[in-house]
Structure formats: C-alpha cells, structure tokens
Design a protein that fits this description.
mainly beta
C-alpha cells in the first residue's frame, strides 16, 4: 500500500473563516483579524496590520455559540506577507494555549 507523503504536518490543518481578536504583546490595543486556518501547532489569519516575524501576540477566538468556550492562544509570528488590498496574511506557531 502506497502512502501519500505530500502533507508532512504533525497536525491536520482546518480551514476556517471566522473572526478573531489579537493583541500585540505590550501594546494593549485589541485588533481584529480573520482566521484562514488553524492546526494543533499553528494559525494563519488576515489582518490590516503588518506584524514583524518573531513578535509574540495574544489571540482570542470567540465562537458564535455561547456554549463553546473561547480559545485563547499565544503565538509567535513566523511570517507576514502582503496579501493586497491593505491586508496581510500572518502565520504563527502556537507557543501557549
């Protein structure tokens, strides 16, 4: 039986389309983003603000259903790409849950 090694990630990546809030550590300003995907070890989202690689940020994902608790994470930004239309695609490693 042949195995498909095209996806070598340790965790499945879930494609999402939901809002999030984040705070760049030390700033105190809450900003908004739109999650692109989430896995057990990382996150990718769109924002109107560029964030430098290596920056630590606090992320909060609040589901629409109040039964589901919010997901609060600390991530380290590993990449920030210009996505056009004054948007940036930001990817980060989850460092704390």
């Amino acid at each position: 039986m042949a195995l498909d090694y095209s996806e070598k990630r340790n965790f499945f990546r879930m494609n999402l389309d939901c809002n999030m809030e984040y705070t760049v550590n030390g700033s105190g300003n809450k900003l908004c983003g739109l999650i692109k995907n989430l896995s057990g070890s990382g996150i990718s989202f769109f924002s109107e603000q560029a964030i430098t690689a290596g920056t630590e940020i606090q992320v909060s994902i609040k589901p629409e259903n109040p039964i589901t608790p919010a997901l609060d994470l600390t991530i380290e930004v590993i990449r920030c790409n210009d996505a056009g239309n004054k948007q940036y695609e930001i990817a980060g490693n989850i460092t704390r849950r």
